[in-house]
Amino acid sequence: MSDIQYQAFETRQKERGIDIEAVKRELKALKVETPSWGYGDSGTRFKVFKKVGVPRDPFEKLDDAAVVHKLTGLTPSVAIHIPWDKVDDYTQLSEYAASLGLRIGAVNPNLFQEDDYMLGSITNADENVRKKAVDHLLECVEIAKEVGSDIVSLWLADGTNYPGQADIRKRKHWMEEALAQTYQALESGMRLLIEYKFFEPAFYHTDLADWGMAYNTAVKLGPQAEVLVDTGHHAQGTNVEHIVAYLLDEERLGGFHFNSRKYADDDLIVGAINPYELFLIFYQILAALRDDEHPGTQQTARRIAYMIDQSHNIEPKIPAMIRSLLNVQTYYAKALLIQWDELEDAQAKQDVLRAEACVREAFEQDVTPLLHAVREEMNVPRDPMKAFYESGYLDKIQERGVGGASW
Ligand code: PSV
Ligand code: MN
Ligand code: MN
Question: How far is the CA of 390 from the centre of ligand 1 (A)?
């Protein structure tokens, strides 16, 4: 991409009334957390394909995450999942992260991979199982404190497969009790992010099925509990950006798990299936940030935890992560090119077509020259994917062999 192309881009955006320096500042400030489990082997219930060079332990996952951060400048933190990333010494893990220019981000409890949890974890009718699950949640809060993280991010697999299988309201009460105990253990400044999903692994009812249930639970718990929107966890056709706007307005949008879905919780590369949705999510966030009349909403928007949550089944792990991040950056950049004065004028005049065009036109801008310029100013490669393939890192990790960490 030549400077001529960047000049043409800048001229065009200035004509549109866009403050390019402000756009660049926002792009440089964008940070997206990557998940430790996105670097390990994963699959479906049919098969986990084992890849050569996959990290064998949490430390090697951090090594890979550091490469991604070095090449993109976007990913200074890594989410961990316990017990997948269980280590003897969490201080050592966070010090190792720091030595690579990273920090440990959200701590994710795992309440779905033990036989005891087959019929539920914190919603299980067996009091002993519920206690075990709460102990694990409390352990995760302690781990977050040890690694210096301010986020515990909870996804609950609990649900039932058949009508009558369990008492839905009793399960709701048990869930609320368990989460209240977890909430009590948070220090000030820490947040509990509550993720919802409408089905799977349970196929009749899920205890935290949608944003309304997650929101209600968060409100009951208190201000340190917020909702996490995983973009892949909605039924077909759901207007996810509307949910985003609503939760921002209620000051309860805590974070995102970015990925794409076509049919269900497919965990495909973010932006690969419906890039317009990703753009429209950022449109709502940027609109909230501009809303001077609602400082609480602005503050909520400012501290959103952006995270990737993908399990790459057939893709090479590190390039898949880089692709995901570049997609997030691209659609964020496009949203930053919305001409707000024009949009607000069209909305005030109730000019439907002009308002729609205003949003769509930002999406249609080619941001490639802008992203090349921003990356240069951030001292990262203009083309991080190409730089990765040329770096020799893939050859270097061959020595790890096959059979690294799964999820
Ligand atoms: C399962 O659906 C899931 O993908 C959730 O999105 C969680 O965030 C993730 O696993 C890790 O527990
Ligand atoms: Mn998720
Ligand atoms: Mn999921």
Answer: 32
